[in-house]
Specification:
- The protein is about 70% helix and about 0% strand.
- By secondary structure, the protein is an all-alpha fold.
- Helix 2 (about 25-50) runs parallel beside helix 7, helix 4 runs antiparallel to helix 6 (about 110-130) and helix 4 (about 70-80) packs antiparallel against helix 8 (about 160-175).
- The chain has helices at about 1-15, 25-50, 55-65, 70-80, 90-95, 110-130, 140-160, 160-175, 175-180.
Length: about 180
């Protein structure tokens, strides 16, 4: 988690009080850092869950290589399935032991918040990075940093649950393994 915390610390430094309005580039950078903190944190959780924490050169290389397999789009798709406004595909719900059409109670609320935070932070980062007409306030950027921190805390509550482990897997694979069953 240290890399994620380092990114959030850097976002805080970019948002530190100073005379006048902060330059937009600092606000944009803070928003980007908030998103990337959660992005790298979830990838680290996923590869560690898969390959463990072994410190041999081969294990460390495998974790580094597999970290590159994750894509922003696939991770957002998985987040959208697990977020409150999302819809879990029926076959994924079935994996968790729920009947077709079940929509409530499948995902722990903390995991819903992590997924929602990821999707919202990705959208905010996308707007901040690519919409050159977008303008932000220090308060808005601080809000995104708070969302990222809250998501890290929520993850600690659900990290070992079956839905969270499935979320980590689906961030990499999408629903392809489930659909092809």
């Amino acid at each position: 988690m240290s890399r994620a915390l380092d990114l959030l610390k850097l976002a805080d430094e970019l948002l530190a009080p100073s005379p006048g309005r902060p330059p937009q580039v600092k606000l944009v950078s803070a928003i980007e850092h908030a998103y990337y903190a959660l992005f790298v944190f979830l990838i680290d959780e996923a590869v560690t869950a898969t390959f463990g924490r072994e410190r041999t050169p081969a294990a460390m290389q495998l974790r580094r290589a597999s970290s590159r397999w994750y894509t922003h789009g696939q991770m957002k798709d998985a987040a959208n399935w697990f977020r409150r406004a999302g819809k879990i595909p029926p076959r994924i719900a079935a994996l968790l032991g729920y009947p077709p059409g079940a929509s409530r109670g499948i995902v722990p609320i903390e995991l819903e918040r992590v997924a929602t935070a990821f999707a919202n932070l990705q959208e905010a980062r996308h707007n901040a990075t690519y919409d050159t007409s977008a303008r932000f306030t220090r308060s808005q950027a601080q809000g995104y940093v708070r969302i990222a921190r809250a998501a890290l805390a929520d993850w600690e509550v659900v990290a070992m649950t079956a839905p969270a482990r499935l979320f980590l897997l689906l961030m990499l694979t999408g629903d392809a393994p489930v659909v092809s069953r």
